[in-house]
Amino acid sequence: MAAGFMTLATGGRVGGVSADSAGLLEAGLPSPRAVCRAVAPYGLDLSRHRSRRLDEQAVRSADLVLGMERRHAREALLLDADALPRVFTLKDFVRRAEAVGPHQSTQPLDEWLGQINRGRRRADLVGRRADDDVQDPLGSPNPAIATTALEIRELVTRVAVLLSPDPAGPR
Within a domain: residue 62? Predict the structure, then answer.
């Protein structure tokens, strides 16, 4: 959902950063029908999407890794121990980036991410508090899936604005 919403919000590219999707599930699985139905009203078609398993190459080559839950971020760090400055939960990234301010087109992305990382510790990804997690809706009733889709859409829209070097925001 997040990569699809980012692609919709930005036309596929924003600030030189492209959106892609990978996770912890087995590769090649289709999006559940309930998820496809939940995102369709927003113009997002996930019917052809197939899961891709997160791997070391994906983490190493990514400019930014946004996990829906802390366990996703922890898994990314297990694959690349040096990736902490680029690995966040979606909610944590939005909160920290909004406190720093949007990325400026004249500023290198890694410098901006360094500002966002100030005061952050690897231990911040440990624990079970749900405040930085977007709850996984798989297996939930359709209203819960729709609620999660709306939450992800809103958070991703905020990310797109933060990453956009254009003061007017993404297209």
Answer: yes
**Torsion angles phi and psi, residue 91, rounded to 5:** -65, -40
Range of the domain at 6: 2-163
**Domain of residue 116, CATH code:** 3.40.50.2300
For residue 41, how many other CB atoms are within 10 A of its CB? 10
Element (H, E) at 92: helix 90-100
- Dihedral of CA atoms 162, 39, 149, 1 in degrees, nearest 10, equals -60
32-53 pLDDT, tens per residue? 899 999 999 999 999 999 888 8
Tokens standing for 106? 């004249």
Q: What is the pTM of this model?
A: 0.87
Would you say 139 and 87 are in contact if contact means Cβ atoms under 8 Å apart?
no
